[in-house]
Amino acid sequence: MMDTMHLAYTSWPQVEQYLRRCQGIIIPTGSTEQHGPIGPIGTDALVAQAIAEGAAEQGHWLLAPTLNLGPAQFNLSFPGTIGLRASTLMAVVQDVLNCLATQGFKRFYFLNGHGANIAAVNAACQDFYAQWSMGQRTGEVPRCRLRSWWDYPGPDRLRKQWYGDWEGMHATPSELAIGMALLGDRFPSEPAALAQVQAPPQALPVGYAKQHAGDNHLDARSHRAQFPDGRVGSHSALATAAHGRALLEAAVADAHQDMALFFEAP
Ligand code: NI
Q1: N or C terminus: which one in the chain shows less Cβ crowding within 10 Å?
Q2: What is the CATH number for 173?
Q3: CA of 50 to the centre of ligand 1 (A)
């Protein structure tokens, strides 16, 4: 989207000018990890960035580079996965917040696409606030907000309506659908992999989703043993590019609305 204000394409005088009218910035957060037999490794980052780009364009807000590595140790037995320790992501997020806050940014909106980021980013924000609470910094306290795109009412309604329990937890039809809409012909389409996902995955054990919410999974070897093809209760083959376009549109609309409230709150 050409009209989006990517920080990477912006000069420092333009940022200085932007700060005079808005002190908010959007930071997409994703992951680089396996997404089942047909899902691209970069799904979480690609989806979060696309939704953030759409909302940033509508609101004329500045868009920071996507943080495309997150905690993903549980997926390391699948090749291609690159995970950060949760403590590493916390350190990165704190550095990002401190850098931008020093320059005058006051509202930080994390548009999230990866469950395991939630705990680490929220904990980093707590440590960021602690600098004021503990008297190390003074002055106006900035605010942070994290929203995962699937929790917005629009996309949440669609994914429940279309997929029900087959949405599952990972390599979900909703995230792969958005990936299809974004990547088109570049979306993985090996016949053997497509054939593999035509069959539904094993259904999740009762209580599993609640117990492991936020990707609170075990180690990589036991994770692959339990979910051999990488799908965690998700019937990836239900995804279509048309679904993806509708999910993306709904998510962008909700993200834009939520960001407007957050950035313009006194
Ligand atoms: Ni994902």
Answers
A1: C
A2: 3.40.50.10310
A3: 14
